[in-house]
Amino acid sequence: MLKLMYITNHPEVAQIAETAGVDRIFVDMEFIGKDERQKGMDTVKSHHTFADIAVIKDAVESAEVLVRINPIHRDYPGFPDTPEEIDRAIAAGADILMLPYFKTLDEVKTFLQLVGGRVRTMLLLETPEAVEIVDEILALPGIDEIHIGLNDLSIGYGKKFMFELLADGTVEQLCFKFRQKGISYGFGGIASLGRGMLPSEYIIKEHYRLGSQCVILSRSFCDVNKLHHIGIINKTFLRGVREIRELERECAAHSVFFDENRAELQKKVAAICAALG
Asked: Which residues does 125 contact at the CB level (< 8 Å), separation at least 6?
């Protein structure tokens, strides 16, 4: 089964997600440089805090707390440098630290050295520059997991639609490299089944075909900024996770439909890109 991850700093929502079967609560501290590179896009910009990590850690029982820190930085006004950010995130209760938007081998080395094995590490591969040196990155010790960030990576490649990278073989090539190194990996995010420009069931089947182990439940899976009733949020998580797990059981039992699904996914992505102009 895929490890499901959901971004929130609301303890009550974290508990609902955990009860429904979400494996990881994702505290998102990244903000440095994000507004500039995603200017004008309707993307998630959380800007969570160290205090949020502690609150979420205290709220959940079995779910892991995944914390996305900022890219490697120093002398950012009013915010601690990377070494202190990592130390404080770990002290607050992070089980896994994620490094986003890196472009160089030195950035990854710095991150891994600063973590020093105290918690698990996840790299968010989301720049063309990182893809170019992925073999060198994968040779480094201390990488526990890698997630392919389709949104920023598609921006970097000048794509119209983030799932073009799934249709054109880019994700498949990267997953093959990760698998060869024995590193756990995942990619992108999904909405509830039947929703999204590219319906999530096509994406989930690709996760299984490619051997992926984790995925983010996107904001559109359950947008708590629009759903103000806690009961509705609870029902949304219970139904949505149940439907995903049912499809996963089908994927595990009937892998023969993967090639057909890939062909259909490629057609749908091509149609979406054509519509986007």
From this structure: 131, 134, 146, 147, 148, 149, 153, 174
- Band of residue 45 on the pLDDT scale cut at 50, 70, 90: low
Structure token digits, residue 98: 């994620």
Q: Radius of gyration (Cα) for the chain, nearest Å?
A: 18
- Cα 226 to Cα 21, 107, 166, 220, 223: the distances in Å are 22, 37, 29, 10, 6
Distances (CA, A) of 26 to 11, 42, 63, 127: 12, 19, 10, 21
Question: What's the CATH fold of domain 3-276?
Answer: TIM Barrel (3.20.20)
Burial label for 105, CB within 10 Å (0-12, 13-18, 19+), is middle
From residue 80, give the alpha-carbon distance in Å to each of 70, 109, 112: 10, 19, 18
> In sequence order, what are the beta bridge partners of 215?
4
- For residues 167 and 206, give the distance between their C-alpha atoms in angstroms, rounded to a whole number: 10
Smallest CA-to-CA distance from 223 within 196, 186, 188 is with: 196
pTM listed for this prediction? 0.93
Looking at 95-229, list the stretches that DSSP marks H as alpha helix, in order from N- to C-terminal side: 105-115, 128-132, 134-138, 150-156, 164-167, 170-181, 200-209
The domain segmentation of the chain, as residue ranges, is 3-276
CA angle 33, 163, 253 (to 5 degrees): 125
Structure-token pair, residue 233: 């949020």
Residues 6+ apart with CB under 8 A from 67: 26, 27, 28, 29, 53, 89, 94, 96, 97, 98
On the 0-12 / 13-18 / 19+ scale of CB atoms within 10 A, 225 is exposed
**pLDDT tens profile 160-184:** 999 999 999 999 999 999 999 999 9
Instruction: Determine the Cα angle at 137 with ends 65 and 127, to 5°.
Output: 75
